[in-house]
Amino acid sequence: MIIIPAIDIKNGKCVRLRQGRMDSETVFGEDPAAMALRWEADGAEMIHVVDLDGAVEKKPRNLVSIKRILDAVKIPIQVGGGIRDIETIEMYLSVGIRRIIIGTEAIRNPALVEEACRNHPGRIVVGIDAREGLVAIEGWTETTRIRAVELARRFEQSGVAAINFTDIHRDGMQTGPNLEATRELAESVSIPVVASGGVSTLRDIRNLMPLEPFGVIGVITGKALYAGTLNLKEAIDLTR
Fold this sequence. Notes:
single chain, alpha/beta, TIM Barrel, 12 strands, globular
């Protein structure tokens, strides 16, 4: 299981939101690239970057900051937020992004996911963000009637590299991950699952580790690292 630090970018700054609310942010750094360097130095194998402005405006809005991260670190970067078409996917891959996360369009336009997987095997991740088990889209502003497990199963044969599963109610709240929902999703598909939302301490990482045999291959964490309740080096040592 790998520990993936999250860098959420809003107006060029490194921020964290509470439950995805754009009006409830805490700024943790003016320089996302410097933050990425910090996590790389602590042993991170990958960094999860979200263009929060892009998620709301439906197109990339923090490309300059993302390129600076790419220039600063040697480890792979995965990016999500505002990725709605093949052109955006191709653009990000061309500048050096390793994996592309498709969220809203996995609901709106599943054919986009399938086409992207055909064109770029192993490079496409589906982001499934759920509120009480139901998928939320459009920067978490709209909750659908589609269950997270149902959406994941739609892409079982598409060649998706992984599913990033976030429990919105726990995101940024440091209340512990939703172990039951994460396990249910992982058991429902053969696609590897990366857990997200609610991680607070080393104990939460320890609680997630028994889910690895079911297909949970990693965990994304942000707020806990920035708040200092979770030490990245210790978490990586534990999982190794």
